[in-house]
């Protein structure tokens, strides 16, 4: 009798396995895709590209 109650208590106390979330995998894939696009943009533009600020004209 005691043996069955101990095993039953052990089964109730063991944590259940965590189920992986599909949204976490989707978020990780989106982050990796965004990083790849940003790195490709840096490689295309290169270090010699400058963006000059437009000259602001004073209104009379």
Q: What would your notes on this structure say?
A:
The protein has helices at residues 2-13, 22-45. The radius of gyration is 29 Å and the shape is rod-shaped. The protein is mostly helical. 60% of the residues lie in helices and 0% in strands. It is built from two helices and no strands.
Summarize the structure.
The chain is mainly α and 60 residues long.
Please describe the structure with a list of short key phrases separated by commas or semicolons:
mainly alpha
Task: Give the helix/strand layout.
Blueprint: H1 2-13, H2 22-45
The total beta strand count reads 0
Round the Cα radius of gyration to an integer and report it.
Answer: 29 Å
Q: Regions with pLDDT < 50 over 5+ consecutive residues?
A: none
Largest sheet report: none
Oligomeric state as shown: single chain
Instruction: List SSEs in N-to-C order.
Output: HH
- Count helical runs: 2
Mean pLDDT: 82
State the distance separating the first and last CA atoms: 98 Å
